[in-house]
Amino acid sequence: MYRIEVGPADLAASRFGVAPLLEVLNALGLAAGRVPAGPLGPWVERVRPRYQPIADDPAIRTLTFLRRRAGYMADFISPPPARPNLTIAEQLATMRATPLGQARGEIARNLVGLPEPDAVVRGVLDAPDMVERLATGLETAWHVLLKPDWPVLRSIVERDIVHRAGRLAAYGWAQALDGLSRQVRWHDGVIEVDIRGGGDVTRRLDGAGLMFVPVVFSELGLAVEQGWPYTLMYRARGVAALWETRAPSREDALARLLGRTRADLLRLLAEPATTTWLSARLRMSIGGIGDHLAVLYASGLVTRERTGRSVLYRRTTLGDLLTTAP
Fold first, then answer.
1. Which residue of 9, 23, 186, 321 is most buried, as measured by CB atoms within 10 A?
2. How do beta strands 15-16 and 231-235 pair?
3. pLDDT at 247 over 80
4. pTM (two decimals)
5. DSSP alpha helices (H): ranges in the chain?
6. Helix or strand or coil: residue 314?
7. CA neighbours within 13 Å on the CB side: how many for 322?
8. Distance of alpha carbon 28 from alpha carbon 217, whole angstroms
9. How many Å apart are CA 246 and CA 322, to the nearest integer?
């Protein structure tokens, strides 16, 4: 079990981040069948035809070989975000700048407990341009697997951040960690994280805070390696938006009053959401969703506020009354 000791200054120093490169690696492992699909089975079935043409690429084969469900993975190919709002291009640039000696040391540690690599994988790992080959493989996987879904995926993650950050700011550690995972607990100033194979490890945040990273394509993870911010990765809420077609709509009084789409939007806005997330959920254009939201906003049924680069919509009290009326 990992124990993260928390001090008085760590609450204010904690922050949230998005890790696109980590999502690419995890999505690749799912598409290749390297890890169980679990609740993401519908997404895996949808993208598998896109994965097949790149499956035999030597770098892709090497990345899927290195992907493991538990245990250490090379930091330079799955780095936690050093700061919020990192882009895939920024993370790939950081990866490409990794010294070859450091990369070989991390790969050697990654290989412990795995079968002997085949000739193709070994050829990539022994190559003098190994770092560049793996970075190019991740870039290929990004364009093939994730880029088409990235607006929806990012909206899922950002929506979770708004929810979790609000709980952390308003109620503190216990409420922020509540419901995050059954393997995470808050106990007398200590965050306890029960991860298989993690051993018995204690770390102190010492005022640096904790980086929370909601992810879509993996479950719970913890990074406490030197040189990286201590990072807790957990599955974001609402991942089904990646494949569900639209929210269920009842032909009731609210739908007759507002129209079906606006009624659906109002029901979805029990929690903050962006137009991108809503358009994916209802399978409508962002412009069309924006037009409906403008009407709901002018009617006083939803409110909006900017958070970072996103505008978040949420029901007002009046909107709550309309959606909960019998």
1. 23
2. unpaired
3. no
4. 0.81
5. 10-13, 20-31, 41-51, 58-66, 88-96, 100-111, 119-126, 130-141, 150-171, 173-177, 253-258, 260-268, 275-282, 286-298, 317-324
6. strand
7. 26
8. 9
9. 20
